[in-house]
Specification:
This protein has 336 residues and is α/β, with parallel strands linked by helices. 35% of the residues lie in helices and 15% in strands. It folds into two domains: 139 residues, 3-Layer(aba) Sandwich (Rossmann fold); 178 residues, Rossmann fold. The protein contains 13 helices and twelve strands. It has a six-stranded parallel β-sheet with strand order 3-2-1-4-5-6, sandwiched between helices. The chain has a six-stranded parallel β-sheet with strand order 9-8-7-10-11-12, sandwiched between helices. One of its GO terms (cellular component) is cytosol. Its EC number is 2.4.99.24. Belongs to the glycosyltransferase 9 family.
Length: 336
Amino acid sequence: MYKNILVINLMYIGDLLFTTPLLHVLRKHFAESHISLLADEKNAWVVKYNPNISELIGIDKKGYHNKLPNYIELIRQIRQRKYDLVINLHPNERASAIAAFSGAKEVIGFSTKGLDLMFSKPLKESKDIHQADAYLEVLKAVGINDLSNNGLEIWTNETAQAKAADVWSNAFSKATVIGINTGGSWPTKRWTKQGFAELADNLLDKGYGVAFFGGPMDKADVAEIVSTMKYRSHKLLKIFTGGTTLLEMAALVKKCAALVSGDSGPMHIAVAQKVPIVAMFGPSDPVRYHPYGQQNAVIQSGEKCLGCGEHTCEHHSCMKNITAEQVYEVLIKRLG
């Protein structure tokens, strides 16, 4: 019986949400245990209110904890907590070192080479299944074989819910609203601006509402997209890009009938809110990163270079060859 457990995942929004099925299973098997999650404080909002964790520990990867003395102090603080079990889901040097030097009775999970010698059970990360399932499989190392879960999960607070309800009531009446997220952590993950503009115009022409989402880094792209639209002044077109917190965006996207997006954090937030997705995939692997638990949600072109993993590309044909008509047709099917 593990009474004090630490889970480590210092990666992006999507990766943190991929951790939520594991947290659900952990809590189901260790109902009375103290379960801590160590996460990048910039993205930790998406798990802040998760009832399956007892404590959320933030790390400032690119700021305070990027200085060696502060990083060592964090490890010292982790050691003081005397964990029975540490589960590392992030196989880079920083996360692997925290796990390796945690002082826990048992350390399992993924590790960078060398530090794995200090793990009780270093594990190889499965690359041929969804990333959330790869995380879940780690639990087999501690004898958990019932991995049934509720899929990706996110909880918002009352403040975010109230703000979203107010914003939504002022933005839309009874229209069926389609969310659009244009961003992606790599430029190559993003669909074309022309495609987004054509799709939004088509939806507005058919009587749908359109809500653009995304962070501050997406504002310029969305502004350019909207500037080229025929219906850029339509009363059912609303721009939330860069104007919400992560939790407010989660509460707003829950009100959408569907979300159209590339492989991105907002896409996985919508999945966690049980919103149907239409996802355009190019350089990233849909086997590992598709909308978890949703069938027929991914659109790809027929390019041979699909899943290349490249962050830059001269031709970007994998995304350019997905048309607005294709996306619209799949969307209508997803809406039923």
